[in-house]
Design goal:
By secondary structure, the protein is α+β, with helices and mostly antiparallel strands. The chain has four helices and seven strands. Helix content is 21%, strand content 26%. It comes from Aliirhizobium smilacinae.
């Protein structure tokens, strides 16, 4: 990871989960992430087609000049017809693997690169249905004179390995929106039968 703040947040999540795929939501200690709180958010993804913000830090709300709690996760992205950001979030939940997205915020002729880290969490202990996220500027923050922003521009992403490294998938690469049937079985907690059986 190119950002030390992003690395610290990932290391906290990674240490908390131990040998498990993901930690419990109740295990997250805000005091341990105190200096990063303005950049953190939690997404409730009980309904994979409509993940919503459960909470968002002050800096993130400043970027959009509004409270994000209860709003659709997709609402903060440019190009609302593109389902890629929501699909990546659902991949994070299904595979229970953290992902790092390359994000760009633009103002005039200046671009401000940001990291968007997505980390799965479990609320009941048997499946991930929450995402702990961090939106961290890679170099310098967007100036207040450039606020509010219209949305986040997606550039690339990749799953993060336990050592913090990440292979990159470009924004032009296809991200399948088809999720395995087992994903939905886990969400509803019941077995599906195939037609004709």
């Amino acid at each position: 990871m190119r950002n030390t703040a992003t690395q610290e947040i990932f290391n906290y999540w990674n240490g908390l989960r131990g040998s498990r795929p993901a930690p419990l939501r109740s295990e997250i200690d805000p005091s341990a992430l105190r200096r990063f709180l303005p950049h953190l958010f939690i997404v409730n993804a009980t309904l994979p087609a409509n993940p919503t913000f459960a909470l968002a830090g002050t800096r993130i709300c400043e970027l959009f000049d509004r409270e994000l709690r209860g709003l659709d996760y997709a609402s903060m992205w440019l190009g609302t017809e593109d389902e890629t950001p929501t699909t990546i979030l659902n991949h994070v939940l299904f595979y229970e693997r953290p992902a790092l997205l390359d994000i760009r915020l633009s103002h005039g002729e200046d671009d401000y690169a940001h990291d968007l880290l997505l980390m799965p969490m479990r609320s009941q202990g048997y499946r991930s249905d929450r995402v702990l996220g961090a939106l961290v500027p890679r170099h310098s923050q967007l100036p207040f004179t450039a606020l509010p922003i219209r949305g986040l521009a997606f550039e690339g992403w990749g799953f993060v390995k336990p050592d913090g490294t990440r292979p990159t998938v470009s924004a032009d690469s296809h991200v399948s929106t088809a999720m395995p049937a087992t994903f939905f079985r886990r969400l509803v907690g019941q077995k599906f039968t195939q037609p004709g059986r």
